[in-house]
Amino acid sequence: MALYVYKFGGTSVGSVERIKSVAEKVKKVQDQGDQIIVVLSAMSGETNRLIALAKQMQTQPTDREMDVLISTGEQVTVALLCMALHELGCKATSYTGTQVKILTDSAFTKARIREIEDIKIRADLDGGKIVVVAGFQGVDEQGNITTLGRGGSDTTAVALAAALKADECHIYTDVDGVYTTDPRVEPKARRLNHITFEEMLEMASLGSKVLQIRSVEFAGKYNVALRVLSSFKEGCGTLITYEESQMESALISGIAFNRDEAKLTITGVPDLPGVAYKILGPIADANIEVDMIVQNIADDATTDFTFTVDRNNYQRAKAILEESCVELGARKVTGDNAIVKVSIVGVGMRSHAGIASMMFKTLASEGINIRMIATSEIKISVVVDEKYLELAVRALHAAFELDQITAEA
Amino acid sequence: MALYVYKFGGTSVGSVERIKSVAEKVKKVQDQGDQIIVVLSAMSGETNRLIALAKQMQTQPTDREMDVLISTGEQVTVALLCMALHELGCKATSYTGTQVKILTDSAFTKARIREIEDIKIRADLDGGKIVVVAGFQGVDEQGNITTLGRGGSDTTAVALAAALKADECHIYTDVDGVYTTDPRVEPKARRLNHITFEEMLEMASLGSKVLQIRSVEFAGKYNVALRVLSSFKEGCGTLITYEESQMESALISGIAFNRDEAKLTITGVPDLPGVAYKILGPIADANIEVDMIVQNIADDATTDFTFTVDRNNYQRAKAILEESCVELGARKVTGDNAIVKVSIVGVGMRSHAGIASMMFKTLASEGINIRMIATSEIKISVVVDEKYLELAVRALHAAFELDQITAEA
Q: How many contacts, defined by CB atoms under 8 Å, are there between A and B?
């Protein structure tokens, strides 16, 4: 007898009919003799509806009350799914985050899970019940309702799988797995049967927004086998584990990209200790996240410093940087917000030389100028002009033979 | 410094604008230097929307899950009101029934309050905060969410007023007080400035549905001064206390009526001990509530037995009674579902003789035939043909000079 955690996102429970079809899918697991915990998001659109209401009440709604408000979305779906399961003759009980209890810190709207009580859930499972838990929410030490931030239902599912030592955690979404790249950009993109946590982290943070990154970190940390699959299509999805696939021998697993980048450069900065902090400190203080960072020594006395930020923050970051430029006695600030980041990701590159040069050669042969490079152990990212995005992705997809991967059954 | 509990119903919080206007009303209390606890219902329509969703999932949704589902309605409004109060610069905190905690029994969908913890609320009030509590809901010993049944928000308000020893509990509705009778039937109906708990109980149970009857019982039991007033109109509403008014010397306080009655009679029942139980037992077993009961001795050996039920239950009750008729060896069953009940209510009738005869004389002079009579210490009810309802109400309103009451400021 295996124990599964199934998580269904907002579109998967977006209507009465879809909730009923989730109930049928869940019932099958029990019919097979396995135990199951179901984690649900709010019906699609509901969280946005509630946020819109809040914004009408207060320009900047208080975080505590925001959590009281939006946590109702999942409470509605867990009750409805239990009713649908009862209608199918299954025993099922719903739990809010408070009821479980999923203990978090008190960082409203972005709380972190500290501990999960498994007593009630374990007793229900052993009593032949299906346990249905509201995703995305928890409770702090004082009994305040907290939420885990957008996409937090994935985190709830993984945390429950870890706490209850589930055999697999299934994340049902509207895509049927993790792809070698975005099929809207490269129609030859293939679904991966298997990917490692590290690769998934690089893919997720680089813009392949299949899973919330925190849930992948969490799954990796507690070694929870994670499977991404579609609510609407049959298939075995993509399994995410520590093990490297035996079957898929490709050098890289996928190509991620991010259209929302902007690049800022400060040149001629007197090269003194602490200069990086002096440049990035004010940016961080303004709550602007920095992505890639590259520093070059221009000559003996000065350095050039380049970094990327989210395109929404480009103007603010530039203004801050211009102030720093004066203070530091640097030469000038330049920037570009018509750039994108393209990355190749794969644990295979650890053991294979020449991946980087193959990437650069492929881009060069298409006449694509590389504006910035950053590398990690299993990832190489380049910044190129926005207009080259599709060309770069398709050329790399072909060069690394990603369309050749044989999908396993 | 006084402590008030203000309760706002669904229409009073039915839109963003209305919630904002509730916030302004509440702020005024604090600005006057008083403390305030606010109890809210769900936005009007929301509970029905949720019930409709539930019915689509399951023909007969489980009570536990129903409570998980519908308790979200109040959770939404308390968060929104806190945001509106914050926007006005007030300190305010919301609480669900679980958070307070409002401990109830485990009778889902119709739970009864056992105990209210006042620690957190007291601390908040003393810290200058406005406390906003979700009405209608509680939590049982096991941590399950419960609800108090329709109109339960009134009960929450009264229970909080009792637990916190509030000076007054204000129930804001869409009517501006308790009237001598329904103004839609008698346009000369006047608002009462004051009414006793006993009168209010008789008025409420007889169809003047201003307040949920349980909340009035509760208020009477714990001697909570209750005031019914309008969210939308200025005015001092109607105060409900134990004391009889000095100012209003009318013999009766109001005329209540109920259009939803049906009458059933079984005649020629052998008059043996336990016959009433044999007749009403099967009716109660079918969960049909009986209102008026009248028994007459027809002759030495048999008795005639008449009772009224809600018109919706007329056919079912009649079928049951026909079975009993055979079993008991009674003569026959007759019934009428085109009848109404009209009642005069007033503590004044305790000390004044002749109220009943004045009522009967008034009806007789209008040619209205009385089909059934029942009396209590402060109420006289008659059943008449449906077509006479308006005539009876207006004639009694005039006869008892209810249009003469001087409304106090």
A: 109
**B201 assigned to some structural domain:** no
Confidence of residue A350 (pLDDT cuts 50, 70, 90): confident
Contacts of B208 (CB under 8 A, 6+ apart): B178, B179, B181, B182, B254, B256
CA distance linking residue B42 with residue B71, whole number of Å: 8
In a shared domain, residues B259 and B357 = yes
Nearest-CA distance from A66 to chain B in Å? 7
Query: In this model, does residue A183 exceed pLDDT 90?
Result: no
B269 and B153, same structural domain?
no
Question: Which amino acid appears at position B372 of this protein?
Answer: M
- The pTM of the full predicted model, rounded to 2 decimals, is 0.79
Domain boundary among B116, B142, B174: B174
One DSSP character per residue, B107-164 reads: -TTS--EEEE--HHHHHHHHTTPEEEEETTEEE-TTS-EEE--TTHHHHHHHHHHHHT
Do residue B282 and residue B161 come from a single domain? no
Domain membership of residue A405 (yes or no) is: no
- Looking at residue A323, the DSSP 8-state letter turns out to be H
- A352 is a domain residue: no
Whether B212 is in a domain gets the answer no
Q: Which two tokens stand for residue A84?
A: 């649908």
Chain A residues in contact with B94 by the CB 8 A cut-off are 65, 68
* Closest-CA residue of chain A to B62: A83
Per-residue model confidence as pLDDT tens digits over B192-233: 999 998 888 888 766 566 777 778 888 988 999 999 999 888
Chain B residues with beta carbon closer than 8 angstroms to that of A16: 53, 56-57
CA dist list (Å): B25 to A55, A208, A349, B85: 21, 49, 66, 10
Residue B156 shares a structural domain with residue B262: no
* Residue whose C-alpha is closest to residue A136's, from A224, A40, A248: A40
Interface confidence, given as ipTM, is: 0.77
The pair of three-digit structure tokens given for residue A31, joined into one six-digit string: 């019919």
Taking an 8 Å cut-off on Cβ atoms, the answer to whether B86 and A50 are in contact is no
B57 contacts A16? CB cut-off 8 A: yes
The answer to whether B135 and B123 are in contact (CB under 8 A) is no
Tally of structural domains, chain B: 2
For testing the chain A interface, which of B16, B82, B120 should be mutated: the one with the most A CBs within 10 Å? Answer: B82
Number of helices (H), then strands (E), in chain B? 13, 20
Q: Could you list the residue range(s) of the whole structural domain that residue A42 is in?
A: 3-174
Q: Do B150 and B278 share a domain, yes or no? A: no
Assign residue A76 the CATH number of its domain. Answer: 3.40.1160.10
Residues B351 and B263 reside in one and the same domain: yes
Boundary (domain end) residue, out of B174, B197, B213:
B174
**B20–A65 C-beta distance less than 8 A:** no
Residues of B with CB under 8 A from a CB of A: 16, 19-20, 50, 53-54, 56-59, 61-62, 64-66, 68-69, 71-72, 75-76, 78-84, 86-87, 93-94, 96, 98-99, 143-145
CATH code for the domain of B294: 3.30.2130.10
Write out pLDDT tens, residues A235-280.
999 999 987 655 545 678 899 999 889 999 999 998 887 788 889 8
Q: What is the DSSP string of A85-130?
A: HHHTT--EEEE-HHHHTEEE-S-TTS--EEEE--HHHHHHHHTTPE
